[in-house]
Amino acid sequence: MEGLAYDALETAEERLRFYRHIPKLADPAEQQLLNKCFSVMKVNTLASEGTIKQRWSTPDRVPHQAMWLWDSVFHTLAMNKLDPLLSWDFLKSVLDTQQESGMIPHMTKVDGSGSSITQPPLLAWGVWENYCHTKQRLHLQYALPILERYMTWNLSNRDRNGNGLLEWMIEGNPLCRSGESGMDNSPRFDRAAVLDAVDFSVFAARDADFIALIAEELEDPETAKHWKEKASYISRQIEALLWDEGEGFYFDRDMDGNMSQVRAVSGFMPLLLNQTMPIERIERLIKNLYDPQHFRTKYPIASTAVSEATYGTDMWRGPVWINMNYLVYTGLIKQGRAEDAKQLASVTIGMVRNYYEQYGVIFEYYDSYDQVPPPACYRKGPPSATYDIRRKMDVIRDYHWSASLTACLMMETSQRVEEAASDGKI
């Protein structure tokens, strides 16, 4: 009987109000893709439930059905454009999972249970970006002590050799050597060895810089100075210990000081650092990006270089991931390579659009050579004959961060990309 009291038109308008704020693009096909991106994001936004006291986000409704640390940050970056207070809910929901030790689990369920590992530390970046839209100082005041404790936990528990570089937790599962890194089955981890990790160290340095920014905004110069110094030290260590001059690339390093030599997309992450990178290193990284022997494929950026012996279509062993493209895009802009960033954004949008128009969904990842459609890519083994995500986790459809970061690329570059295309530059 309660349902009879609802005004159908009013209810429909309320449900559709979310979409009224989507930016308008000149290209109708791109507008349709952008609308799809936000539809995926809306579907993967959930109401408070159990121990999660406000709205939160999930990577997908099936199979993950939980809240994940770095995923949630990526989700906020596009949501900031439509509803920044909703983005804050996403972030607060993750911040609230902090344990007494300071650790924040990589995954938390509504019943309060969570994992024993963490995930890439991107939360301070997410909080700062959200603040740029909300200007809610109370949010910064709430987040700062949590972010400090979390970064302190990372620095205390993930630097076993004390050299300022961080190491991901390594697990025993050959199909998921390092779920903590988010790059579960990357060949970086095939030897199951503990490594000073390029990406972990960069994320830590970068988030320390954002903690310093937050502290400055809250007029806490001592805290800001502390975290600036931490960020600077980690950045110097990355430049000193993880750069291979012979290869012109950043690699992980084992505990004996040997470079891993597995060339992966993680090697581009130092582009994100605030500390000035020598121009010759930027040039050599760009050379790797455009080298067909390593990373230049139809759809960049391969998660593992095509020169690696185990390159393929299985998750982090070759396919393109939108989150890594977005991070490299961001790093290229930071290093003054706007044209390279614009080209990467344009190709990435085209890739997602191509398969959206064929399948009507936005996929978790894509074959960098574009020889295999996403449903046929491996995901910790070959795909099942019949798509049934509840029985076999094949490439996930309508994946939240793919949608969010594609939307970011479209909103951030649409005008510039249109201008460049008209000039024949792309």
Describe the protein's architecture and organization.
The chain is built from 12 helices and 8 strands. With about 425 residues, it is mostly helical. The strands form 4 sheets. A two-stranded antiparallel sheet has the order 1-2. A hairpin with a 4-residue loop joins strand 6 and strand 7. The longest helix is centred in the C-terminal third of the chain and has 23 residues. The chain is globular and about 70 Å long. The C terminus is likely disordered.
Structural class: mainly alpha
Number of strands: 8
Count up the helices.
Answer: 12
Tell me the strand percentage band.
under 5%
- Between the first and last Cα atoms, what is the distance in angstroms? 58 Å
Rounded mean pLDDT score: 94
Helix content: 40-55%
Domain Mannosylglycerate hydrolase MGH1-like glycoside hydrolase: 67-370
Protein name: Mannosylglycerate hydrolase MGH1-like glycoside hydrolase domain-containing protein
InterPro entries: Glycoside_hydrolase_63 (IPR004888), MGH1-like_GH (IPR054491)
Keywords: Glycosidase, Hydrolase
Indicate the topology.
Layout: H1 8-16, H2 28-43, E1 45-46, E2 56-57, E3 67-68, H3 69-82, H4 84-95, E4 107-108, H5 123-134, H6 137-157, E5 195-196, H7 198-217, H8 221-241, E6 243-244, E7 249-250, E8 253-254, H9 279-289, H10 322-334, H11 338-359, H12 400-422
Antiparallel strand pairs: 1-2, 3-4, 5-8, 6-7
Helix pairs in contact: 2-12, 3-4, 3-5, 3-12, 4-5, 5-6, 5-7, 6-7, 7-8, 10-11, 11-12
